[in-house]
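Entry:
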Amino acid sequence: MNLIFDFDGTLVDSLPKVIEKFNGMADEFHFRKIQPDELPNIRHLNSRDVIKYMQIPFYKIPRILHRARKLMNSEMPFLTPFLHLREVLQQLHAEGFLLGILTSNSSENVNTWLELHKINHFFNFIHAESSYFGKSRLIKKLLKKYNIDKSHAFYIGDETRDIEAANKNDIYSVAVTWGFNSEQILLQHQPDYVARKPEDLLKIIPQVGKPCTT
C-alpha cells in the first residue's frame, strides 16, 4: 500500500503561522486579511471559496505561495506534529506501508521539519511542487513517477481540494478533520474515508475497498 500525505494541516500543525504569514502579505498583494473570529466560518468553505473570500485573484496565487514558503522557512523549527501522529507514522512504516508526501510547501521546509522531529526515515519520497488548484495533475504525475498502483494508493489530506484531486485520479481519499477544513465541508465532498484523529489511520488503511459510513 502507498500512503501519500499532504503536509500542512495534515502532518504539521501550521495553520496559525500560515494565516499569520498570509495576513502579513495582504497589504502588499491587496487581498483580505483573516481575523481570528472569521476562521470558524472560513473552515466551512471549500478551497475555491476560500480564495474568493480572501479576494485573491487566481493569477496572484503562484507568487503568494512562493512568498509564503520563504516566510515559513524560519518557522519550521517551532511547528509541531499533531498529537500521536509520530507514533502512527512509525507503526505504518513498521507494518510495511510505503509513505510519501505531496505538498505545495518547499522541499527544504519539509525536510527541515521531518529531520527536526526525526521522522524523515519513515518517508520514501517527498514531491514538493506548487499548484494550489493543480493537485490532481500533481498526483497523476507522482503516480507515474513512482510507478504506484492506483488500486493500492491513498491520498491523505485536510482540505476539500485534496479529496477532489484523489477522486479525479481514482485513488482512495482520506479526509482528516484536524487540519484546515471542517468535517462538515469535507463530508460534503464525499471522501472514501474520514479520520478524526491520527490513530484512525491505523483502522482505515487496511480496509481497502470498504469506505466508512459517516
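The chain has two domains: 2-13+79-204, 15-77.
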